[in-house]
């Protein structure tokens, strides 16, 4: 029987989509999941099985487990927790309800989904792949909430990796940098509210983030890099992938935090908005 993989967040144009296609090309039984199955019709045309799955809906999670169990005889070789959303806002401008929803999606759902599939993974001595971000290590301005969720995912993944050794399940963190996906299209527009510490730069900051362009490699190139590493017998604990991923890793090794802060704000084009301003001038 072919090995199997279930991937969350496989809407067209994303990294989950590309991973599903690459695993399929390599002969895997792929379960490509998404909230909106209309966004996976191209995968159906390729012969890939799609599964309706909202990672925040435990009934749909349980239903997905049943589908995989019945199809594979109770085993799952790879679970890729890929579904995520992004938020762009200043920390003091954060809508707490929206931030909690982001954490529910990017962090807590990973535990929910993994817990549901662990019997199948255990039966296959399988692998959990948690899709994090280089943002978990190097935070960009206005992406603090998103980066915090990914930093939390890194720590949860480290704990999983140590704990799951006792049941024969491997855990890999996927730290991704620049990949040209549609995530920015799905992100809520940046909005600087009245009273924000960035209010005097409202127009510039909103323009900076809302007209931001995705820079990076194409999703299929990303998948062709990642999948072979996941298929190695000896699993890596972390895979760095995407444009500039290696540069981020080296930066963390070589430079002090104050220098990283300076580089990041400069690269983000936000340097002028973080200079100290006397309260009377603000």
TrEMBL record:
Molecular functions (GO terms): acylglycerone-phosphate reductase (NADP+) activity; triacylglycerol lipase activity
GO terms of biological process kind: phosphatidic acid biosynthetic process; triglyceride catabolic process
InterPro entries: NAD(P)-bd_dom_sf, Sc_DH/Rdtase_CS, SDR_fam
The keyword NADP belongs to this UniProt entry's keyword annotation: yes
One Pfam family from the record: adh_short
Signal peptide positions on this chain: none
GO CC field: endoplasmic reticulum; lipid droplet
Keyword annotations of the record: NADP, Oxidoreductase
Entry keyword Transferase: no
Similarity comment text for this entry: Belongs to the short-chain dehydrogenases/reductases (SDR) family.
Protein name: NAD(P)-binding protein
